[in-house]
Amino acid sequence: MPSLPDRLAGIVGAPHVLTDAGTLAGYLTDWTGRWTGAADAVVRPRTTDEVAAVVTLCAAEGISLCVQGGNTGLVGGSIPPAAGDAPTRLTILLSTARMTGLDDVDVIGRSVGAQAGATLDAVDRHAAAHGLRFGVDLAARESATAGGVVATNAGGIRMIRHGNTRSQVLGIEAVLADGRILRRWSPLIKDNVGYDLPGLLTGSEGTLAVITKVLFSLVTPPEATTVAVVALDRVAAATELIAAASRRGLVVEAAEIMTEAGVDLVHAHGARRPVAQPAPFEFVFEVSGAGAVDEELLAAIEGIDGVLDAVAEPGPAQALWAARENHTEAIARSTTTPVVKLDVSVPIRALPEAFDRLHAVPGDLGVECRPILFGHVGDGNIHANYLDVPAADVHRVTEAVFAVVTDLGGSISAEHGIGRAKAAWIRLGRSDVDIDLMRTLKTALDPHGLLNPGVLFG
Ligand code: FAD
Ligand code: MLT
Ligand code: ZN
C-alpha cells in the first residue's frame, strides 16, 4: 500500500503535498501565535474534484482534515489540534491557497463566483473593475479568503451597511465529509426550495464541509463618501452620532471606535494622529448620501455632547482610516504573550457600561495586563484585547470578560466564531436544545468527526 503522502500526491501532484517539518510549521501556528497544531501532511488541491478525492480518501481511511484559507482566523480554528490533543489518527491540513479562480462578474445580476482560496481583495478588485464592490471588508483583506470569510461568517467594517458575510452568499459549492459535492448554485435572489444549506455552511468553521466555491452577491458602491475622525470623551457620543446622522438622511457606511490606549499603540508604530489632541475615544465615521453630505455630517456632529474635536475629508481618506486599519497588527506587536483576543457584542444601549466593565477586568482580578478595546461600535461589537496576560491567568481573564458580556445580554462571539479558543464556553451562548441540534447536524453531516475536530464543540 502506498504511503499517505504518495496517495495524496496521486491526487494533487507531488509538489502540492508538503511533509517537511520546517515547511509544515508555517501552516501549523495560527495568526495570534496562541495555537500550534500537528499534521502528517499539508495538501494543496487546485480543483473541486481534487478536494473531493482528498476528502474521499480521508473518509475511507478515517483521516482527520483541517481546512485552512488565509490563516487569519483569530480563534484557533484554522490549524489542527496539537499533538497531545489530537485524536489518535492521521491528520492532514487542506490549504485552499491554489484555489484562487474567479468567474466573470455578472454585472446585471450583481454577483460573482469565487473559488475558496481567492482573497477578499482579489474578489473586491475584480468586482470594482465592473463598478461593483464586495460587501465584506476587513483589514486582513489581502490574506483572508472567500472560503474563510464564509466559514467564519465574518463581519468587518462594512457590516453596518451591507450585513454579514451570510447576507452576501447566494450560492455555494462544498465537498461533504463523505466526498460528495454539494452544488447549490443559483443566482436567484428569491429561491425558497427547502432548507438554506448555504446559510448553514456559512459560519460552520470547517466542521461540516469543505467549501470549494462561493457565489457572492455584490453591492453598488456610493458615488462619494465622507470620512470623519471624531474625538470623543464618551462611548455614548458615537452611538448618538450614528443615530443623528441617520435621522439627517445620511447612509452609514462604517462606524468604528478606538480608545486612546489603542491609538497610542498604533502611533508608536508610526501612524499620523488625525485629531489635534489625544482623546479618550476616536470614532471613525464614514457616511454617504444625496446632497450636501459634508454639511449634514458636520451639523450632526455639532449636535452631540461629548465631541472634543473632528476632522473630515472625502473618502477613501486612508490617512483617517490608518489608526483603525493598523489596530490588530499594532496590538499583536505590542504584547509579550499571545494576545487574549475576545470578540464580543452587547446591546447598543449597554456599550458604555460594557467598555467600563471590560476595562476594569484586570484590576478586578488583580491580573497585571493591559486592556485595549476597540471595535465595530455601530454593531455593538467590542474587540476586547488583553495584552501581556500571564499564561496562568488566560482562563480567568476570559471567564471574567464572558461574565460581563453574559450579564449585559451579549454574545461571546460577535464575528470571529468559536474555533478552539471559545469551545469551552459555547454553552454561554446557546441553550442545551440549541447545542443538541447543532451536534445532531454535525453528526449527520460528519458522522466520524473527521472535519476540524476540536473546533466549535471542543
Ligand atoms: P482561516 O483563518 O484559514 O480559517 C478560519 C476558519 O474557517 C477555520 O475554522 C477554517 O477551518 C475555516 N475555513 C477556511 N477556509 C475554509 C473552507 N474553504 N471550507 C471550510 N472551512 C474553511 N473577522 C471579522 O469577522 N471581522 C473583521 O473585521 C476582521 N478583521 C480582521 C483583521 C485582521 C488584521 C485579522 C488578522 C483578522 C481579522 N478577522 C476579522 C478574522 C477573520 O475571521 C478572518 O480574517 C477571515 O474571516 C478568515 O479567513 P481566512 O481565509 O484567513 O480563514
Ligand atoms: C477587526 O475588526 O479589526 C478585527 O475583527 C480583528 C481584531 O479583532 O483584532
Ligand atoms: Zn472586527
Automatic annotation (TrEMBL):
<dbReference type="InterPro" id="IPR051264">
    <property type="entry name" value="FAD-oxidored/transferase_4"/>
</dbReference>
<dbReference type="InterPro" id="IPR016167">
    <property type="entry name" value="FAD-bd_PCMH_sub1"/>
</dbReference>
<dbReference type="GO" id="GO:0022904">
    <property type="term" value="P:respiratory electron transport chain"/>
</dbReference>
<dbReference type="InterPro" id="IPR016166">
    <property type="entry name" value="FAD-bd_PCMH"/>
</dbReference>
<keyword id="KW-0285">Flavoprotein</keyword>
<comment type="similarity">
    <text>Belongs to the FAD-binding oxidoreductase/transferase type 4 family.</text>
</comment>
<protein>
    <submittedName>
        <fullName>Putative FAD-linked oxidase</fullName>
    </submittedName>
</protein>
<dbReference type="InterPro" id="IPR006094">
    <property type="entry name" value="Oxid_FAD_bind_N"/>
</dbReference>
<dbReference type="InterPro" id="IPR016169">
    <property type="entry name" value="FAD-bd_PCMH_sub2"/>
</dbReference>
<dbReference type="Pfam" id="PF01565">
    <property type="entry name" value="FAD_binding_4"/>
</dbReference>
<dbReference type="Pfam" id="PF02913">
    <property type="entry name" value="FAD-oxidase_C"/>
</dbReference>
<keyword id="KW-0274">FAD</keyword>
<dbReference type="GO" id="GO:0016491">
    <property type="term" value="F:oxidoreductase activity"/>
</dbReference>
<keyword id="KW-0560">Oxidoreductase</keyword>
<dbReference type="InterPro" id="IPR036318">
    <property type="entry name" value="FAD-bd_PCMH-like_sf"/>
</dbReference>
<feature type="domain" description="FAD-binding PCMH-type">
    <location>
        <begin position="35"/>
        <end position="221"/>
    </location>
</feature>
<dbReference type="InterPro" id="IPR016164">
    <property type="entry name" value="FAD-linked_Oxase-like_C"/>
</dbReference>
<dbReference type="InterPro" id="IPR016171">
    <property type="entry name" value="Vanillyl_alc_oxidase_C-sub2"/>
</dbReference>
<dbReference type="GO" id="GO:0071949">
    <property type="term" value="F:FAD binding"/>
</dbReference>
<dbReference type="InterPro" id="IPR004113">
    <property type="entry name" value="FAD-bd_oxidored_4_C"/>
</dbReference>
